[in-house]
UniProtKB/TrEMBL annotation:
GO BP terms: oligosaccharide catabolic process
Organism per entry: Bacillus timonensis
Stretches assigned to the Glycosyl hydrolase family 13 catalytic domain: 14-420
Annotated transmembrane regions: none
Cellular localization per UniProt: Cytoplasm
GO annotation, cellular component aspect: cytoplasm
Protein name according to UniProt: oligo-1,6-glucosidase
Entry EC number(s): 3.2.1.10
Alphabetical UniProt keywords: Cytoplasm, Glycosidase, Hydrolase
Major localisation: cytoplasm
Signal peptide (UniProt feature, chain positions): none
Amino acid sequence: MENKTWWKESVVYQIYPRSFKDTNGDGIGDLKGITEKLDYLKDLGVDVIWLSPVYESPNDDNGYDISNYREIMKEFGTMADWDELLSHMHDRGMKLMMDLVVNHSSDEHEWFQQSRKSKDNPYRDYYIWRPGKDGKEPNNWESVFSGSAWKYDEQTDEYFLHLFSKKQPDLNWENPQVRQEVYDLMTFWLKKGIDGFRMDVINFISKVPGLPDGELQEGKKYASGAPYYMNGPRIHEFLQEMNQQVLSKYDIMTVGEMPGVTVDEAKAYTGADRNELNMVFQFEHMDLDSGPTEKWDVRPLNLLDLKQNITKWQKGLEGSGWNSLYLNNHDQPRMVSRFADDGEYWAESAKMLGTFLHMLQGTPYIYQGEEIGMTNVQFDSIDDYKDIETLNMYKEKVEAGVEPEQIMQSIYAKGRDNARTPMQWDDSENAGFTTGTPWLSVNPNYHEINAAKQVGDPNSIFTYYQQLIKLRKQHEIMVYGTYDLLLPEHPTIYAYTRILDNEKLLVVTNFSKETSLFELPKDFSYKTQELLISNYQVDGNESIEKIELKPYEARVYRLTI
Ligand code: NOJ
């Protein structure tokens, strides 16, 4: 039996503040906008809100480049607005999880401004500086956002490391002073009353000493340095120190964003006896529809791969760690466009994916707009896109001779701006997001897809999500039941069970637009059945031995055994 905790029983809602709700007409979402929409979120039923970064930032990477960890970004409002938001959330019984971005800061942070001044500046060692090698960069690592991961700085004739943009220099965690600064700023926010941290690429903070070259692929100028910075040699030591000095003193929830993490690593990060983090965001299921080298190489998803992967994580962490459950976020395309059908079966398939996800073991995360089935967007011109990763990749590929039309297809499928178009509140101009000009255009489908149309409609995706969240509060088995896969080889149906004491949940989802026949395995026994939720009208007493599933149909039964 799993240990019981509030963060296992919670549903988290992620807000990307820039795109959520603008109240002052500057086209950029703000904190007052979030406060204004708290009743909407309470009505949805979520327990925790994760705010993507709201700190002072020059916005090279929309707030993931922080220039002051103790101030609020001007576009988003003031510290007083933030205090008000937190107190209104707590009044409603909701908790707040802040984003902690400490693998890197902004180059406009005071620490970096000092650091770049001279080699003997007290802040020099806050960042990772190296002399050039043979007139070139210190090693061959590629930045996640294209090009070299090193930038030359004339002032001291050295290079600094930036795994992300040139304006996001990596902090040097080998330096105990840096770690102390991080613990202090975490304590600053905890003392203000927050309830948790989502930690940005936290498994990148420990780099292999010597920063060895990566393995260069043929025809490439730079190599992946990932083997030398993902899950590095001191990562567990650093997280245990952080836990001991900060986290263990508060009743909070923590989730570490961890590209490249394996099940075994995740156990080490989240095991109850490890004193590190509560859960991690792993990425394996996000890579199933990509080619071997990069996410822009778009491939169709094979359902059998998804089953195999999710099952590995569900069984792998069972009783020894904890899963986070997500199918989209601010870096990923919209799930309904990516894994299901944003056309004919838009509502059915969005509900099906929600069912599939919320019935798994772990803490579910809803990304803003998912609850109303927001979709990917296709802007005509690259000039309409704002995301630094997308723009850098486009430039690099054009320079390498790839046809722009071909690049646009990858952006339509995988670009991060898919998730960042403004929240669609209603069918007024700009979807009710702003009275000004939105920083990123609104998806033109807001006349059909918007919150106002769905709240209160018994058949809407929003109402369905309300039901999913309510079920979690009523049935412990949804949180703590163990998972087992059924029909591992079925090409279109993903079915599984959850078991707790003498109860079983049977979850049956059709991932295709074809009718699919579900047949209960021969050795499957149960006494009574009760239909808990379904995305089509069905007779709950109908036999479950064989079910003709309609396109993207989803059903969950509660059985006694
Ligand atoms: C992961 C964040 O989710 C993403 O938005 C950001 O660009 C990188 N980390 C760098 O901070």
